[in-house]
Amino acid sequence: TLAGVALAISGVTLVLDVFSSGTRIDPVGVAWALGAALCAGFYFMMSDRVTADGSGLHSITLATGGLVVAATVVTLLGITGVMPLTFTANHTTVAGASVPWLVPVILLAIFPTALAYILGISGVARLRPSFASLVGLTEVLAAVLAAWLLIGERISLVQAAGGVVVLLGLALARVGHRSAMATPDAAADDELAPVPPVPSAP
After folding, report:
1. Residue 13 near residue 163 (C-beta atoms within 8 A)
2. How much is the pTM?
3. Cβ atoms of residues 86 and 92 within 8 Å
4. Using an 8 Å Cβ cutoff, are 4 and 173 in contact?
5. Cα–Cα distance for residue pair 66/36, rounded to 1 Å
6. Is 16 left (phi over 0), alpha (psi -120 to 50) or beta?
7. In this predicted model, what pLDDT tens digit does every residue of 115-165 receive, in sequence order?
8. 12 to each of 60, 90, 108, 143, 175, how far by Cα in Å?
9. What is the three-class DSSP state of 99?
10. How many Å apart are CA 135 and CA 4, to the nearest integer?
11. How far apart are the C-alpha atoms of 17 and 167, rounded to whole Å?
12. What is the largest CA-CA distance in the chain?
């Protein structure tokens, strides 16, 4: 599993093209990234409390609580000036049509936020956090492919190779994850197996 993790992370660095000549590492950006990684770790840990059969913490409850806390923190950061935060009530353009600002806000709140979090938490409950956190690395691949399909961004050979490396890392991690899950199950089956009766002496 660790080899798959290392391979997947290496692939992500290639997809992001962080080693290109024009790339500059910003300490502020690194700090925000580390904060996001910490939040993601808590997200996967809390998602483990959600049960796939619905008997434990419900995914909607966890998603709602997380979004309320996130909205509160972002608002406080914006008010204090720590994070730039501006908004407007002007009309905006969506799919070529001019609509009130409330339309994209509602669409963003429902589909890529609330619905995405609910489905994501349910997915973590089924995949288990250890492997689901690795599957989350495919978001980078999805973003690159979406940029290529929707706005015509070019994908370099290095990025394409990185995508292949990420998929190989996920496959390797999945094999290790299944092996780790199978070992304790087999041991549990052995412990629960009925003990044959000892024949009595004649």
Report:
1. no
2. 0.66
3. no
4. yes
5. 14
6. alpha
7. 888 888 888 888 888 788 888 888 888 888 988 898 888 888 988 999 999
8. 30, 38, 26, 12, 20
9. strand
10. 11
11. 17
12. 95
